[in-house]
Design goal:
- There is one protein chain.
- The longest helix has 16 residues.
- This protein has a single domain, classed as Rossmann fold (3-Layer(aba) Sandwich).
- The two termini are 12 Å apart.
- 49% of the residues lie in helices and 15% in strands.
- The strands form 2 sheets. Strands 2-3-1-4-8 form a 5-stranded parallel sheet. Strands 6-5-7 form a 3-stranded antiparallel sheet.
- The chain is α/β, with parallel strands linked by helices.
- The radius of gyration is 17 Å and the shape is globular.
- A hairpin with a 5-residue loop joins strand 5 and strand 6.
């Protein structure tokens, strides 16, 4: 089973992708994580990527598609993938269509999280990630504490690109580039739209029901 999960920035894709990957034994593929790794390594490509991301823009489709090609070619990921935030636009979607055919794979379903802009801004401004365990928290909606996070507050960090100006740019880019994916996957009868403003567990329950129905 291969799943695509997308939605606007701050919709909770990372949180839900983590829960899905653990519950259904899938490998989470986040192009954002792969790109941030380049930035962390301070490579020439990483410096270029950081400049683009800080402006609220996306890196080139060719760079992203090459990364995905390598993932699909790797036999250890054979039909056990969840794509977190990829594809981001129609060209990437068409490239993915060709790649899954190239490697004799298929997309089982596409999950779209719907969240209003006002909530997204607050979600992203409050977002914190633990650099030790990788868990994601939010100081407004789901604050880290002694019960849900044993690593301690000293490991909590915010992303350098999580500013209100950058958030709004990313949101507008999403509306312009990513929303057309809805029509694309509707035509392929793969799309499931999910209300993303309810609780994390409630959202995950709806997602689990969809996945379970496909596995039945």
């Amino acid at each position: 089973m291969n799943i695509i999960l997308f939605g606007p920035p701050g919709a909770g894709k990372g949180t839900q992708a983590d829960k899905i990957s653990k519950s259904f034994n899938l490998h989470k593929i986040s192009t954002g994580d792969l790109l941030r790794r380049e930035i962390s390594n301070k490579t020439q490509l990483g410096k270029k990527i950081k400049s683009i991301i800080d402006k609220g823009q996306f890196v080139s489709d060719d760079t992203i598609n090459d990364l995905i090609d390598k993932i699909l070619a790797d036999k250890k990921f054979n039909n056990r993938l969840i794509f977190d935030g990829y594809p981001r636009n129609l060209e990437q979607a068409k490239s993915l269509d060709l790649l899954v055919k190239k490697y004799n794979k298929k997309i089982s379903c596409v999950l779209s999280l719907n969240v209003d802009k006002e909530i997204i801004v607050k979600r992203i401004l409050g977002r914190q990630t633990c650099r030790k365990c990788g868990l994601i928290f939010n100081k407004y909606f789901r604050a880290a504490n002694g019960k849900n996070h044993i690593c301690g507050s000293k490991f909590l960090v915010t992303r350098s690109d999580d500013t209100e100006e950058t958030i709004l740019k990313r949101y507008n880019t999403y509306l312009d580039k990513t929303v057309p994916l809805i029509d694309h996957y509707k035509k392929l009868n793969l799309l499931y739209e999910i209300e993303g403003t309810t609780g994390i567990d409630e959202i995950f329950m709806k997602i689990s029901q969809i996945i379970a129905s496909l596995e039945a």
